[in-house]
Specification:
Elements (H helix, E strand, L loop, with lengths): L2 H10 L5 H12 L3 E5 L3 H5 L1 E2 L2 E7 L2 H7 L5 E4 L5 E9 L12 H13 L3 E5 L4 E6 L2 E4 L3 H35 L4 H28 L4 H11 L2 H12 L10 H5 L4 H4 L2 H7 L14 H5 L6 H11 L2 H5 L3 H5 L5 H21 L6
Parallel strand pairs: 1-4
Antiparallel strand pairs: 1-6, 2-5, 3-5, 4-5, 6-7, 7-8
């Protein structure tokens, strides 16, 4: 089950959704329940007893009434139809489980064997557990959830500021021709961390339902431009141009957090040179800041001058020679490069 699938389940379990309303009713009536989200021949293969409902429409009250019986209730994956009730599930007993309660053990094994999400409402614990093939997730109280979401949002804001600092520092080093691959990797590491924290906050927002809309808006705002910056930085420093990877964050997403903190591993995954060797930018990210400059012209400039240093020190005549530039645009480019060089003289490098 993918992260996207997990988020879809959380959406169905958000406050106010029919499935969550049903679960709240079950908790109030103190009966407990085991709900399987998904129906098919695989589910029938481990089902015994109970009765068929011939695809009855889902309703919170109907599910709560069916949960008064001991057996499992089987719905479709979208929780819109109820197929069976009072079912005795017989998953493979050889599947390991660390759970102790009968419902929880059955739910974990069923989720592992069939890749079907299972929801357990525990009357004794007063809790709701969601079992998927990836593991167990405990639904949280909305008040507690909101506090945790806001705390993670503050962390995301702090990481986003650090990413902006890393980008400003890299620009300075590029203009001064002092960048090494360690500086490039630092920016990409911070971008990957921003993406990971954002994914956590988005999960909170999804689970909160309508109450999480404002949080999602803030996350979207903080992520604005991150993927584009990463793609441009990678395009500037990868071995070949145009780059083979469309989004390096997809590669970094597969690295665990411990290894993501290791610059050497990140550099290896992205096929960069030694960390402390010179990294000369192609200038694609710098050119991207110029409004109304077509991508084809940017590529032509990179092909003609090879790297950012060549661009920064090109004359108006040299720039004018590039196809698609023209005299007016050549002067605009020259003025822009002069401003970058002037700003660089006022920069002061600070150690990370």
């Amino acid at each position: 089950m993918t992260q996207r699938d997990s988020l879809e389940i959380l959406k169905m379990l958000a406050p106010g959704k029919p499935l969550r309303v049903a679960i709240d009713l079950i908790l109030r009536q103190g009966t407990g329940a085991l709900i399987v989200l998904g129906y098919g021949t695989d589910v029938e293969g481990i089902s015994s007893g109970g009765f068929h409902l011939n695809g009855a429409d889902f309703s919170a009250a109907r599910l709560a009434e069916l949960a008064k019986m001991d057996g499992a209730v089987i719905c479709d994956s979208a929780a819109e139809v109820i197929y069976r009730a009072n079912v005795h599930l017989l998953p493979d007993g050889a599947i390991p489980t660390s759970e102790t309660g009968t419902r929880h053990r059955t739910a974990e094994r069923t989720a592992q064997q069939l890749s079907r999400p299972c929801v357990v409402v525990s009357e004794g614990r007063g809790s709701v557990s969601v079992f998927t093939r990836k593991g167990k997730y405990e639904l949280r109280n909305p008040t507690t959830l909101l506090a945790q979401a806001n705390q993670n949002l503050l962390t995301l804001e702090r990481f986003r500021r650090r990413l902006a600092d890393a980008e400003a520092r890299l620009t300075q080093l590029e203009v001064d021709d002092l960048a090494v691959y360690r500086d490039v990797v630092l920016l990409l590491q911070r971008a990957a961390l921003v993406q990971r924290v954002a994914a956590h906050v988005e999960a909170y927002a999804v689970e909160l339902g309508g109450e999480g809309d404002i949080i999602q808006i803030q996350v979207d705002d903080l992520l604005l431009g991150v993927h584009r910056t990463v793609r441009l930085v990678y395009a500037d420093f990868c071995r070949s141009y145009p780059p083979e990877l469309e989004d390096p964050l997809d590669v970094l997403a597969d690295i665990d957090t411990e290894h993501l903190s290791d610059p050497g591993r990140v550099a290896t995954h992205l096929d960069f040179g030694p960390l402390d060797s010179q990294a000369r930018s192609r200038g694609r990210r710098v050119l991207d800041r110029l409004p109304r400059l077509p991508d084809a012209v940017k590529d032509s400039l990179i092909e003609r001058f090879d790297n950012l240093q060549g661009l920064l020190h090109a004359s108006v005549a040299d720039l004018d020679d590039v196809e698609g530039v023209g005299r007016t645009r050549a002067r605009q480019l020259r003025n822009y490069f002069d401003r970058l060089l002037d700003t660089a003289r006022d920069w002061s490098l600070e150690e990370e």
